[in-house]
Fold:
Amino acid sequence: MLAGLLDSLYGGISIGAVLLIAALGLAIVFGLMGVINLAHGELMMLGAYTTFVVQNGFKSLGEPWFETYILFAIPIAFLVTALVGLVLERGVIRFLYGRPLETLLATWGVSLILQQFVRSVNWVMVIGIALFCLLFFGALWVLSRRADFPRIRSWAIPTMVVLSLGIVFTIGKVLSETFELGLTKPWFGTQGVDVTAPSWMRGGWMVELSEGSFQLSYVRLFIIGLTILCITGIYLFLQRSAWGLRIRAVTQNRSMSACLGIPTGKVDALTFAIGSGLAGVAGCAISLLGSVSPNTGQNYVVDTFMVVVVGGVGKLVGSIVAALAIGTINYLIGSGILALLFQPIEPLFDFFTFFATTSMAKVMVFALIIIFLQIRPGGIFPQKGRSYEL
Amino acid sequence: MVRRLGRRKFLIYGSATLGTTLLLKACSEPPAPDTTGEATTSDSAAAGGNGDTIKVGILHSLSGTMAISEKSVVDAEQLAIEEINAAGGVLGKQIEPIVEDGASDWPTFAEKARKLIDQDQVVSVFGCWTSASRKAVLPVFEEKKHMLWYPVQYEGQECSNNIFYTGAAPNQQIEPAVDWLLENKGKQFFLIGSDYVFPRTANTIIKAQLAELGGETVGEDYLPLGNTEVTPIITKIRAALPEGGVIFNTLNGDSNVAFFKQLQGAGLTPDKYPVMSVSIAEEEVKAIGTEYLKDQYAAWNYFQTVDTPENQDFVKAFKAKYGEDRVTNDPMEAAYIGVYLWKQAVEQAGTADDLEAVRKAAYGQKFEAPEGMVTMNPNHHLSKVVRIGKVGEDGLFEIVNETEAAIEPVPWNQFVADTKGLGCDWSDPSKGGKYKLKDV
Structure:
């Protein structure tokens, strides 16, 4: 009994931890800021690809270093995706605050762009993008020094766009024709790439009990530890730091915070970057469990929204409880343990045996969530207070 | 004070940029590859085989989710066509492939098949991977009385007069694999697969076969395509097979990666829990990672390591054309065979245009393929040798078992009640695609 109980507990927590680490970034972006970010899964995918790149870098360094690559991959994945998130917020999302429908469509578009980017990125493309930014923003900077800039900007900017695009395309064409495959070969391609856990993380920890033994996978334990670390970090940041205070203030009342001199634009950018960075860490974690391919993110985005909505939008603790609850229920139904518990009662046993496959367990979990949200539309921990409208 | 970029301006500049990009892209489109160039010149000559070339269609997904797998099949088909052309072509004419993209979208497959037949007037089509795409083009080929060469192992239960199946029927992959496992690895099977038609049909067959041969199915589970959470399944496997046993894996795509990574993490090692896969070939091993797959098994008709002179030439030619890091696998080889068998049939019929004559000539064609001698049967499937491979250190398969002789294909499954006692023979007009076998 003890072994079974421990095993169920472990199974539930390990599924819940993956859900939670994936949903943590979204709990901030969607929960605190109210931005429906459908590109969240793709940010995770970028984190996973960053892990792949770091892994390959460490592979070339040799044996003792390779074993530690994952420790470096996590902060690097955080930084890379936080940077992408920052660009995304400054470039797209800040124009769309308060308009959820358009945000939804725009971020979905961004998710498709990111997927295709990973499929086809090569040196020519990267050089082209960098060159375009350099030319266009450089020209803009030079022009903005001129006294008559406001007068000429209406035609100067389109001219600059066309000019820099022309230069970039010509150079790109020349480059791809001179160097051919050397520069035009895709970095990753459409096929999934292979992230290998360091050897100390393969295998697992044998737990010997009187009535049987089972093995706790090191990767799962690592992910559980990482999730706890991330939650602690986020909690301390939000509750104990000056910027965390500002973020909470802006979340509660944007215009009042602005009146009091809090730079709301900066706070938005920072919050979104942190949420995206957490997605990157999650991507790093899932690359140890599953495949890394351009579609990786799509498999997670629905689950993460589910966790945040069930937990209650705007409450981190809600997401934690929801992820663990969904994970445990999913595990109990899917692995057939629930069916075994009801063995004496014939109809219930048949009912749960029917749902004891992975795809049917998912159906059951979704049905339960729909029923739950009928009873408590605000989630497990709904927002209190009248200032907040949902 | 600097004016901020307003929303309206943002939209205007945005669309201007997009427009310019599209324009530039259109202008800078590289000169079309020579296939299309030839097509325009020979259009006027004549369609089909009356001109200097014989046109054939290649119809696979070059974009979308299936592109990963299908692109390399196109490579193999083009290699075969190139080799035939270099050796003088068919009936003294060069073969001219017309490549169309089915875009991983089944209606598009049907549309492109129609286009190849009506507009390009090809004399044969090589194409498709998924069963869904084959089912989508099947009515087109039957309506036009045309010819499709299908190169992938599939679930069977089909026998069309207008399709030649050069991959394995279930009795040439799944059934021998089960036989071998029963003999060498144990009697208790756990079945795991992706949740769609092929794994479900395959598992129906396996369960029937195990019941007949004294094995036992201790559990089965299906994962939605793309799902990567396999913890509940591993618990079920451990509960059903506490002392170890055989896992038969028909998972497809990304789920395989998650399954093997987490299987190893949970301590289910190949010595106690050998996994037999039917969708993992050399390319997939590369993507999953050899360290997770080492010592697991797969069943195919062809592995890159098959030791025949034909295979050495095939692998060498393929690597020379597409790069040293490329590998060859079963569907690629089946596609390669398809082109050669079509060529032999055309030569025997003496014409490429009379499809009926080509079809009749195809029966009984033998070809010394990389996998060994294959023979086209009157039921449109090939007799093939079946092999079991074990993943080695280098990511290639070490062949641990192969059938002594080629196995005859059985398209209608004899373990499934609906199709028990049915056969297929298109060489005899009175029998056709579905007739009652006498002895049942």
Remarks:
- Residues 386-390 of chain A have pLDDT under 50 and may be disordered.
- The two ends of chain A are 45 Å apart (CA to CA).
- The beta strands of chain A are 204-209, 212-217.
